[in-house]
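Hi everyone,

Forwarding the result from last night's run.
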Amino acid sequence: MASSRRWAATVSFFASWFFFFIIIFQVSLFRVPCRIGMCTSPVEVTSSQLIATELCPAIFVQALLYPGAIAKAFNKNKTIPSFGNLLKLYNLTNMKKHSAAIDLHHLEIIAGCYLTVGGALLGLINTGRMSLFGILLIIWGLVREGILRKSANMNPMKTFQFYPAMSIAVVFAALSIRKDVRKLIRSSRARQVGKCMRSKAKYM
C-alpha cells in the first residue's frame, strides 16, 4: 500500500513539473487565432486575455511571459529580451483597439487556456485535475472549430492546428493526478498477481 503511494507521489510530482515546464516555456501546442494574431501556447492566449480585460496588473503578465520569451530567444539564437519590453514584443501594447468578437467564437479554447495555465502553476503546490480539464477543453474547442469549418467548406488547417507536443502535454497532465496514478499502479499490480496465481495453478 505504502509502496503504491510513494510511486504515485513520485510519478505525479515529476509529471506536474514537466507539465509546468511545457506550459511556462510556451512550447507550441496548437495554432489558433487570438487578439495578438496567432497564438501557439496557452500562456499567449491567457496573457492576451488578461491584458485586454485588465483582470490583473501588467507586471503579472510580464512575469508569466518572461520564461517563454527567454526560451524562444535561446532557441532562435537571439538576445534575451528585456523584462519591460515584453508587452511590445508580444504585441500586447494596444490591446484595447482590437475587437473582442473573436473571443465569443473560441470560448472553450480561452477557458481551457485559463485552466491549463492555472493548473500548471497550482500543480506545483497541490496536484489536481485542473490541468487535464484545461487541456481537454482546448482539444474540444479545436475539434469543434474544425468540424464547424469543414461543414462550412473551409479549411481548418489554415488557422486551427494541433502540434505533436499536445499529446505529450495530455500525458503529463493525466499523470500529474496522484489518485489516478495510484489506481493505475494498483490495478497493474493486481493483474500481475492474477497472472502469477494462474500460472502457479497450472503446475499444481
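The chain has nine helices and three strands.

Cheers,
N.
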